[in-house]
Amino acid sequence: MIYALSSKFDIERAKVYLNKLIDKGATVELCEVKKKRTLSQNALFHKWIHVFSEHIGEISFEYCKRDVKRTILGMRECVNRFTGEVQQIDYKTSQMTTSELSDFMTRFKTWANVEFGCYLPNPGDAGYDELITNYK
After folding, report:
1. What residue spans define the domains of the chain?
2. β partners of residue 36
3. Between the CA of residue 13 and those of 9, 27, 47, what are the distances in Å?
């Protein structure tokens, strides 16, 4: 069950359910659901990929995005559930939390600037409004 503890209604629901589990002597696992990346973060990342791919002369947006993620994040291991084989797969920004995507974007921005001389503005930075206007 998922409860939004910012909601008084959900807080009461959670208390009632927790008390029921305590009375039952149940074994439970409690964890915090971390927020996934925001749509505005994702939109800015995609604009940055457009700018960067244009800057380096890469025609394919998807290839550029894949290669940037591989260069900065590497790849992660995943076990194929059918074959048991360990495979390397790409990270997906859609599965990142807001802090993970923020960290990745900071690293991307620095890397693009240092290694390629490519400027990628954040909101409030010089050139940000122009970025938004030119890369819809």
Report:
1. 1-33, 39-134
2. 97
3. 6, 19, 42
Tokens of 72: 């900065």
The CATH class of the 39-134 domain is mainly alpha
The answer to whether 62 touches 121, Cβ cutoff 8 Å, is no
H, E, C per residue of the chain: CCCCCCCHHHHHHHHHHHHHHHHHCCCCCCCCCCCECCHHHHHHHHHHHHHHHHHHCCCCHHHHHHHHHHHHHCCEEEECCCCCCEEEECCCHHHCEHHHHHHHHHHHHHHHHHHHCCCCCCCCCCCHHHHHHHCC
The reported pTM is: 0.73
List pLDDT tens digits, range 93-135: 988 999 999 999 999 999 999 999 999 999 999 999 999 898 8
